[in-house]
């Protein structure tokens, strides 16, 4: 099964405020962009991924991610993350009604194509499925087979919220790179230990993180 991934990205100027203890305000937009670039590049390198649609209204991010091969979908109707994902999924299905669609976080800088392929192969066994994040509170991937609505319920405690919608929780070992999103300085250090993409590594070097 080939998948279209829908990746939401908020305006870079407002991204990653929880990294304030690790990155100065002037560096956080570049760090958020680097996360997204490494996530998109790894996703496009995954054999199970047909294409990637990034939902954003940020002009710089749109240009940079389109240059990597992503399709850019405007953030409509401007009603928050879940509304943006529903809009993007509808746009994808409008062109290819039989698409398998998965929402993927934009802050997975250590993402490995082979691990993503394992997650998508497991998700293909169910009408809807999700992968919890490393903290086991949130969600990093939500998948819907052809003919099934995505029904995103991202936000606080999204692991419990997605389970409540009937999505199957994927219990997989060895897919740490797909679960390790980055919201805090501790998350970033964990991602760096896993091994991040070149753009995130370059930005992290500017932060002078010990051991990097």
Q: Could you give a quick summary of the protein structure above?
A:
The chain is of the alpha/beta class and 212 residues long. Helices cover 40% and strands 16% of the residues. The chain is globular.
What do you see in this structure?
By secondary structure, this protein is α/β, with parallel strands linked by helices. It is 40% helix and 16% strand. It contains eight helices and seven strands. The chain has helices at residues 28-44, 59-68, 81-95, 113-123, 158-164, 176-179, 185-194, 198-207; strands at residues 3-8, 49-55, 71-73, 100-104, 128-132, 139-144, 168-169. The protein has a seven-stranded mixed beta sheet, sandwiched between helices. Strand 1 (3-8), helix 1 and strand 2 (49-55) form a beta-alpha-beta unit. Helix 1 (28-44) runs parallel beside helix 2 (59-68) and helix 1 runs antiparallel to helix 8. The chain is globular, with a radius of gyration of 16 Å. 48% of the residues are buried. The model has no long low-confidence stretch (mean pLDDT 94).
Give the number of helices.
8
Mean pLDDT: 94
Termini distance? 38 Å
What's the overall geometry? globular
Proportion in β-strands: 15-25%
> Sheet with the most strands?
7 strands, mixed
Q: Total strand count, please?
A: 7
Instruction: State the order of secondary-structure elements, H for helix, E for strand.
Output: EHEHEHEHEEHEHHH
Low-confidence stretches: none
């Amino acid at each position: 099964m080939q998948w279209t991934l829908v990746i939401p990205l908020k305006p870079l100027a407002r991204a990653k405020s929880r990294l304030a203890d690790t990155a100065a305000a002037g560096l956080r937009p570049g760090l958020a962009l680097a996360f997204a670039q490494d996530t998109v590049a790894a996703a496009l390198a995954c054999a199970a991924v047909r294409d990637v649609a990034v939902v954003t209204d940020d002009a710089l991010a749109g240009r940079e991610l389109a240059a990597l091969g992503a399709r850019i979908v405007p953030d409509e109707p401007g009603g928050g993350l879940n509304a943006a994902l529903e809009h993007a999924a509808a746009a994808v299905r409008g062109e290819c009604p039989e698409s398998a669609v998965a929402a993927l976080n934009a802050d997975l800088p250590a993402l490995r194509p082979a691990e993503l392929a394992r997650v998508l192969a497991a998700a293909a066994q169910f009408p809807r499925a999700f992968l919890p994040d490393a903290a086991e509170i949130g969600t990093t991937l939500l998948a819907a087979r052809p003919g099934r609505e995505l029904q995103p319920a991202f936000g606080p405690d999204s692991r419990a919220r997605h389970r409540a919608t009937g999505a199957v929780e994927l219990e997989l070992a060895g897919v740490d790179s797909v679960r390790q999103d980055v919201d805090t300085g501790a998350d970033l250090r964990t991602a760096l230990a896993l091994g991040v993409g070149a753009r995130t590594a370059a930005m992290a070097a500017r932060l002078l993180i010990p051991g990097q």
